[in-house]
Amino acid sequence: MDGKPATRRGPDFCSLRYGLALIMHFSNFTMITQRVSLSIAIIAMVNSTQQHGLSNTSTEGPFADAFNNSSISIKEFDTKATVYQWSPETQGIIFSSINYGIILTLIPSGYLAGIFGAKQMLGAGLLISSLLTLFTPLAADFGVILVIVVRTVQGMAQGMAWTGQFTIWAKWAPPLERSKLTTIAGSGSAFGSFIILCVGGLISQVLGWPFIFYIFGSTGCICCLLWFTVIYDDPLQHPCISVREKEHIMSSLPQQPSSPRRAVPIKAMVTCLPLWAIFTGFFSHFWLCTIILTYLPTYISTLLHVNIRDSGVLSSLPFIAAASCTILGGQLADFLLSRNLLRLITVRKLFSSLGLLLPSVCAVALPFVASSYVITIILLILIPGTSNLCDSGFIINTLDIAPRYASFLMGISRGFGLIAGIVSSTATGFLISQDFESGWRNVFFLSAAVNMFGLVFYLTLGQTEIQDWAKERPSPTSEDIKLFQI
């Protein structure tokens, strides 16, 4: 089975599965806004003289880091709430605490989602994150230690929510619609980044910084109501699904597991080269994305002498490009599959190639066009945009080769991505501290090399066939038992 499913049917955008994708889009939107709310609010929360010293050491991940040098000066805020005396080092610890929480729950939450159901895991994660967002202003009044604890637990809750999504798609997404559905859902993160960058400063200026947490925390609670009301783990259990849609989904998804409780074949996974190809792709993808989005304000303001903090729209353009390319890439990938123009393995490798090769070309070109403001901005927008074409490549490849363990494997994959982000940020800081101009050239060349390694590894070893260890083992019949006894 290389990826030409028998059924060919156009997508029904009014169907329940597309409604599920939109709600998941809203969930991802909510979680990313909650995750980066502090990066916007911190400008008004701390003393302006201390804030001046805070740079890219305060990070929260690929989408959040661009906000650490956010757009509004402290003088622009009507600070109607408490101002805290937090040093730049303390702020860095607060920012990074959410990442440690995410790392702690990525792998176990993926496994538990397969046992207890992704609806409960993802819904609980979103609810906890929303409540903790509402609690953050009060926690700040009690002291920095409580803020760090709150952010760490919030990271754990969001780790539960991120990885649980693929368990749902393993049962809801027909093979010819996987790219569309997962990219519609996943694009919520980029769209949320764009929105909070545009309105976060305005909320803080007009209402006061606590309302950033109150608004987006409340939004998350509303999303939880939708989630627990509309979402079901399995289309067979949903009371509102039409017979036609249910039959379409079930007929296109062979090998539905009869029982969610199963042992994880760790040994088989460790020795599975197609799985390592996916992990390598994640590592390469997150390496460059983290560098660009973390150091975007510094790179533009220093090399082009343009203060990106004075232009929220300019800062948000990469996120719009990322959201657009994510959705368009998913539409194109499933179009190629539904028309039988390309095999599944070809589509996955094509979009993986585009998502790793095109950003590498743009990154390598950046040092040579540093004198041109327009070209530099275009390349910086294209890097995260074209990188997200990987969402229709190796990013969802675990749904192809091991749908039963998709959430568990997604947790491991994201773990590789987080490690890449940590290493790449550290390496970038070291290289540009030696010599700024030549350091950036080395950063981009190294990133391109990492991307090329991941691409070659995936093109060589990537597969789309369901692996033997991921197949459902048929339960023994009564006749088999009798024969065994004889």
Automatic annotation (TrEMBL):
Q: Which InterPro entries has this protein been placed in?
A: MFS, MFS_dom, MFS_Na/Anion_cotransporter, MFS_trans_sf
Domain annotation Major facilitator superfamily (MFS) profile: ranges: 36-466
Q: Where are the transmembrane segments?
A: 98-118, 124-150, 181-203, 209-232, 268-296, 316-338, 408-432, 444-461
- Keyword set, alphabetical order: Cell membrane, Glycoprotein, Ion transport, Membrane, Sodium, Sodium transport, Symport, Transmembrane, Transmembrane helix, Transport
One GO term (biological process): monoatomic anion transport
- Membrane protein topology class: Multi-pass membrane protein
Q: Which Gene3D superfamilies match?
A: MFS general substrate transporter like domains
Cite the SUPFAM superfamilies for this sequence: MFS general substrate transporter (SSF103473)
MF-aspect GO terms: sodium:phosphate symporter activity
Broad class of where this protein is predominantly found: membrane
Q: Does the keyword Zinc-finger apply?
A: no
CDD domains, alphabetized:
MFS_SLC17
Family per similarity comment: Belongs to the major facilitator superfamily. Sodium/anion cotransporter family.
Q: Output this protein's name.
A: Solute carrier family 17 member 2
Source organism (scientific name)? Aotus nancymaae
Whichever gene encodes this chain, its name is SLC17A2
